[in-house]
Amino acid sequence: MTIPHLDIASSKTVGKRIAANTGLMVGSKALAAVLGLASLIIAAKSISITALGVIFFLHSYHLFFAQLATFQAWQTIIRFGMDDVKNNDVNSLSRLIQFGYKLDVLSAIVAFIGALLCYKIVLIFGDIFPNLLGREAGESDVSASFGMVALYCSLLIIRHRGASIGVFRLFDRFDVLAWHGVVMTGVRFIGVVIAALLGAGMEGFLLAWFVGSLVDYLSLPILAARELSKRNLLKPVLQAKASIRSPRKGVWPFVWKANVDSTLAASNVHLPVLLVMFVFGPIWVSVYRTAEEIAKLLSEGFKLLDQVIYPELAKMVSVGEVEKIWRLVMRAAIILLGVGLLASLFIWLFFGTALGAVLSEEYMEAAPLASLLVPAAALLGMAAPLYPVLYATDHPERAIYARGAGVIIYIIAFFALSLTIGHMAPGWAAIAGNVVAVGLVMWLAKQALDKIVKQEQEGGVSDEVPAPGFGLIGDSKARIWGLPLREWQTRAFKKAGADVTLPLAVNDIGIWHNLDWVMSAELSKSFAVTTDLALVENDTIVSLSGATRSEAEALIGKSADALDGYDFKQVAAGDVNDGYIKSLRKQETPYVLDTKVTPILDIMRQQFKSSYKGITDFVTKWFWPIPAFYVTRFCAFIKMSPNQVTTIGFFLMLAATWFFWQGQWALGFACGWMMTFLDTVDGKLARTTMTYSYWGNIYDHGIDLVHPPFWYWAWFVGLGGVYSMSEPLFIALIAIWIGYLVDRIIEGIFMRQHGFHIHVWTKFNSGLRFFIARRNPNTFIMMIGIMLTLVWADAGVWAFLLIAIWTWICIAANFVSLIAGWLVKRPLTSWMDA
């Protein structure tokens, strides 16, 4: 019988292993980049710049969907497989690897279907932007050849890379990955040479790109199967019974976070090509890709460093050597930044002349653009050792924060700069986005490491307290928010922190609650962390903490006198919770209501009122509550999820942006106000049905954070604004954009300094929040201005100028509060706490 072997022992130190593996991968990618640049030069001299731009678009289009839909199985295999290797657990590792391959297959199918469906949307944008897909050139109208797009995207079906890469990285076989790294570009280079010699035209060069990807995608799983076979693991992996729906604990949350992060990372690679295609057309895509290939000589090695260093960091965390990580990754980051900046200087000084010797004048702008993309790549290199820290310390969501912020800054800067400095916009936008991402990931990585080091110094003691068990006493046929009362109560206490997964045994101690009584959300959270308390309302025992089933059945529902002889302390709702809801910026008396006495509809009204923010803008506070209650109730009845409501709002936001841009104000404000209304509904639906989640909050607030600057831009365009610093309307737009960012920074600094929001410090700050220059008040001002254009032609322009002025008045008020907060020596407290 052959025995599988999982050993990955090495006599080299961590630093030497990282250096050796990095050398392999950087050498591989450098060679691949040279071959890629050579292929590009040959193609550029053989076919038109427009045709080459179309090829680049198709290739980036299929890769964008591949990254968008692909679950990064390799990260999951390393994160969880490292423990299996340490424990020599062949069965567990086999199931994990098979799970990874199933994820790859599922991702491939979803990517292919998504690419075909979304291509129709691309064609719609092609009608909006006449220069899209080569229509201006007339040489190669891809939009009329859906079959060619479908054929190229069929590569997605066989693109199963994640699990195979995970196998090689887990077992430290970077030598295989290094050789495989030149397969695609090597095959493509041969194909390009053949196409050039035969004069094959665009179709021949497109075939070269296609075959290169085909060989790459097919060869990697074959090489991985060979590696598994050498370790006698192939048969166990094939015979394993891995559940795609229920893998080991913690896998799916990790997978989802890793997928979001990888999608954002892919946006830095493929999104620029798509944006350049839409804004500047296929000719500039060719120029941009030429510059990008130059930058790849540097950046490809950087991108792979996280793949080299991640397994090593995972090992260090596993064996308790976390305190060594920060110095290791920062040294690598500084070295990579230095190398990148030197390469930038070299390209800036010499590459433009070399490029001019081999390519036509159409490509001359590639050199100055490359001199911007290379320092952007140098910043990317500095971040390369830092992102793996977040995965190794089990905080992949923090990588999403950093990459997401970088992508948002890139998109905003790209569109803003494309209208001002033109073709150099992608380069400066890349620098701006990477500066933000690097700063954030450095801070987040240091925080994650410090937390683990602190725990290790304290003997591995965690501050987390095990969740108490939970049980319900009684029976009811009542329904609330479209749910049976028992299901709603279970959800409520799960959100409060109780463990509702397993029923409590007879002698198990936990939280016990009367099914008929509904607690306020904050009260249930406070009660769930108590012990030996009896919550009494109207002389009735409602809940017990730290009680057994027998005690609960004997006491709950009885008079308070029944507590005699027991060790439970009798408390009222106000004794358990003070009523201040920090997340909603409000003070509210905690309550517990009997469904047999208080009508369900009245309880729902109370819950809806409780779910509302106390300090918000005047539209949300005064106009939306009544209609929002009925819409929230309807959504709960038809079992619509909060994220579905948010998604509808997202598309309404896009529609509003488009109508504003076209100057179709009535439709714009209709869609815009409906979006803001649903922005109220989704949060209330989440809180009342107990379906709120971390990711739902990110999804909702992420949209809220990103879209206002685009609305302001669309208002500027709809008003006929001109991009000139001599135009008051353009100055106002810049002022609003800068003000939006400055205001967020001030609020963030205040929150960081004092632990609560600036808008709840004093009554003045709270009052200002009702009318502060945010999306809803600004939209109201703009709408009034547009309505007044019926009697005053320039009213819309003056409304826009007023928004800019009001923005900076509000910033001045918040800045004064920030300075005053610094000058006050005593710890600050919110007036609502008092």
UniProtKB/TrEMBL annotation:
So which domain of life are we looking at?
Answer: Bacteria
Any matching Pfam family: CDP-OH_P_transf
Subcellular localization, per the record? Cell membrane
Per UniProt, the keywords (alphabetical) are: Cell membrane, Membrane, Transferase, Transmembrane, Transmembrane helix
So which residues are the signal peptide here?
none
- Cellular component aspect of the GO annotation: plasma membrane
Instruction: Return one Gene Ontology term, BP aspect.
Output: phospholipid biosynthetic process
Q: GO terms for molecular function, please?
A: phosphotransferase activity, for other substituted phosphate groups
What this protein is called in its record is Phosphatidylglycerophosphate synthase
Task: Please give the family membership noted in the entry.
Answer: Belongs to the CDP-alcohol phosphatidyltransferase class-I family.
Where exactly are the transmembrane stretches of this chain?
30-58, 103-122, 142-158, 178-200, 334-360, 366-388, 400-421, 427-445, 648-675, 712-742, 779-799, 805-824
The organism encoding this protein is Litorimonas cladophorae
The record's Gene3D superfamilies line, in alphabetical order, gives: 1.20.120.1760
Instruction: Kindly give the membrane topology term recorded for this protein.
Output: Multi-pass membrane protein
